[in-house]
Amino acid sequence: MAVSVMAVSIAATPLVLGAQTAPAPTAPQGSMRDRVMAQIMGDGKNAWTPEQLDTMAKLRDAAVSDPYALTELRHLTDNIGPRISGSPQAQQAVEYVAAEMRKLGAEVTLEKTSVPHWVRGVETAELVTWSGQAPGTKQKVVLTALGGSVATAPEGLTADVIVVNNWQELKALPPNAARGKIVLFNEKFDKQLAAQGGGLYAYGDAVQYRAAAPVAGASVGAAAVLVRSVGGADYRIPHTGMTMYAPGVAKIPAAAVTAEDADLLANLTSQGAVKLHLTLTPQTLPDAPSYNVIADWKGTEHPEQVVVVSGHLDSWDLATGAIDDGAGVVVSMQAIHLLSKLGIHPRRTVRFIAWMAEEEGSQGAVTYMEEFGKDAANHIGAIESDLGAGHPDGVMYAGKPELGTWLQPVAQALAPIGGETLRSSPETGEDIAGLTEKGVPSFAPSQDTRFYFNYHHTPADTFDKVDPRELGENAAVMTVLAYALADSKETAPR
Question: In Å, how far from its chain's centre is CA 166?
Fold first, then answer.
């Protein structure tokens, strides 16, 4: 997941059997609520026959029990490793996933795109002056460069630290108060909100500082900026992610410090002057060639009509990208695997896409829209998984309100794994946002994100953070929904 955040608008009113939609408070006879209830109880028309609903059940059960997604994820993470765009590992992942899709009998295309090639270098920091310092000592500060950051001088820079908690405090500083200094933006990630299921909201509040801190800091003359790591992680691990620069504004080095070190700096600067020695040596190399991996499981009646199942193949370089977004890639691979294994050929084409460079600007998605955007009318639906591998309680959808009613039979097919919830959302994924904007119904698993931001973009985003059962449940949502969209009698409302 990159800087852009999905602002989820939940419209969920419980109905019988646990399914959720957004009916009017008072429902007259013959209303949408009545039609929804008729579909749930099997008394009304829907877009799928009993045989197709049975197929959904078979796909659901197979997805939960089949180890394919877990095996593929272990290889992507443990064997190939971090997959930052432009890296040899990213290219290896492209070749590996393409080969795996060919083995399944899908028609594979490598769609060439141009991606950023930013390489992390040395990143160190230490306090050299502070109140109460023992003579001759220094104190280590744990940090990591933000994606796209420029470098300090090779020998680093030493400057006073000034701490602000928000944009308002920065604006309220006296003139020249920050000039030549290192400014720390100490916006705290709301752990309680995340624990209550509002991780996306907590992330949205905090990530703006990661994105805009260099421009804001440079505007007041700062020599460099630090941001408090965006996430709920304890254990003194930093959180990277893309930052931004603006034309006409000086580019200054930018790094994220751990929450514990942000607290340390806030405490010490309240007592007196604090000097920090900061060294960052990243490089921004020329853009590199790379690829989206596209694999089509061809439809039998309307092969020109496609349903996208997708995740982004790139990851940050601090870890192996298990939850962001290896999990999204492999549950999408699982959809093609199960269609192949069970010999299922829907009316329409199911198109797997492993997007490239989502973390550094979604260049792969831009390339796809340049090539296929004009064919948006033949995109029947688009699904993206980019929120990890936590238990899915159902499906998020972006599009016409009628989608909630239309999807009720699908929700019931997912009910045995606790996936019957339907949630309306303005967007469902960064890479499919262009399709959403063109009116294509778009979808994502509605996942438990309480722990996602503890690991997201940190050195802890590794294979062990994925629960095999929950990964299978996510594969079930992806596969059942993809089949339902691809084989329905009529296409999804749009």
Answer: 25
- Tell me, what's the pLDDT at 138? 98
Distances, alpha carbon 414 to alpha carbons 18, 55, 57, 147, 484, in Å: 11, 12, 8, 38, 12
Clarify whether 359 is annotated catalytic: no
Dihedral pair phi/psi, residue 281, rounded to 5°: -130, 45
**Chain-centroid distance, C-alpha 433:** 12
What distance lies between CA 222 and its chain's CA centroid? Answer: 31
- Please give the average per-residue pLDDT across 59-80, as a whole number: 98
Question: 88-91: long-range contacts (C-beta < 8 A, 24 or more apart)?
Answer: 90/115, 90/290, 90/313, 90/314, 90/356, 91/290
Give the pTM: 0.91
Q: Phi and psi dihedrals of 109, rounded to 5?
A: -130, 135
Question: Model confidence over 145-162: pLDDT tens digits?
Answer: 999 999 999 999 999 999
Residue from 111, 358, 384, 420 carrying the catalytic annotation: 358
Please calculate the CA angle 219-224-227 and round it to the nearest 5 degrees. 95
Task: Give span(s): CATH 3.40.630.10, the chain.
Answer: 13-117+286-487
What's residue 1's pLDDT?
A: 75
CATH 3.50.30.30 spans which residues of the chain? 121-281
Fold exhibited by the domain 121-281: Glucose Oxidase; domain 1 (3.50.30)
End-to-end CA distance of the chain: 26
* Residue pLDDT, tens place only, 113-124: 999 999 999 999
Task: Tell me if 213 sits within 8 A of 243, measured CB to CB.
Answer: yes
Nearest residue to 77 (alpha-carbon basis) of 477, 465, 479: 465
CA distances from 253 to 90, 138, 176, 339 (A): 25, 22, 19, 48
Q: In angstroms, what CA-CA distances link 204 with 18, 273, 294?
A: 29, 32, 30
| CA pair distance 76, 246, nearest whole angstrom | 35
The structural architecture, per CATH, of the domain 13-117+286-487 is 3-Layer(aba) Sandwich (3.40)
Lowest-pLDDT range, 154-163, 196-205, 315-324, 361-370?
196-205
Helix (H) or strand (E) holding 86: none
Nearest-Å Rg of the Cα atoms of the chain is 24
Closest to 185 (Cα-Cα) out of 204, 168, 160:
168
